[in-house]
Amino acid sequence: MYQTIQEFIEDWRRESRITQNALDVLTDESLSRRVSPKDRTLGELAWHIVTAPGHMLAMAGLPVEMPGDPNTRPASARQMADAHRRFAEQVTAVIAREWTDATLREVRNMFGEQWPNALTLQAIIRHEIHHRGQLTVLMRQAGLPVPDIYGPARRD
Ligand code: NI
User: What region does 68 belong to: left with phi over 0, alpha with psi -120 to 50, or beta?
Assistant: First the structure.
């Protein structure tokens, strides 16, 4: 788990940049793709990736402005990508201003359990990586170019 806010910020910057690269290639036509009738569409998944960290950070008491309503996906891919870009920058600024390394060890009620804030931050990153993996599969099925994640994508 993170010992310092700086460690989180570095991780957040790296991961949100990778996520941004994926969101930036989504097209409006691709947003209705889905794996099965029961699963999220590519657009719903992308919007979940954009909005979930704000929800969790707010639960932990960080005063962040939400990128948008989680239940109301913007109509365009561009709006989602822009919302993510603004939100990612905002998180870096707000957490650096509001929290100290000691805040990471403070415990909050998260989903009915007592989590140190460091665990919440780790869960946010893991949750994003998990859904981003799903997103890139849907992107391939939609014929979109998948960006490099941790190493070169197939086309490279
Ligand atoms: Ni999720």
Answer: left
Centre of ligand 1 to C-alpha 71, Å, is: 13
Q: Which amino acid belongs to residue 29? A: E
pLDDT at 20 over 80: yes
- At residue 79, does pLDDT exceed 80? yes
What is the per-residue pLDDT for 149?
A: 85
Q: Determine the Cα–Cα distance for residues 56 and 53; give it in Å rounded to an integer.
A: 5
- For 118, the token pair is 């460091």
Decide: helix, strand or coil at residue 34.
Answer: strand
Percent of the chain with pLDDT over 90: 88
Q: Which pair of structure tokens corresponds to residue 86?
A: 């603004």
d(CA 134, ligand 1 centre) in Å: 11
Ordered by where they begin, the domains of the chain are 5-141 (1.20.120.450)
pLDDT at 72: 94
Ligand 1 midpoint to CA 3 (Å): 25
Residue 47: in which H helix or E strand, if any?
Answer: helix 42-59
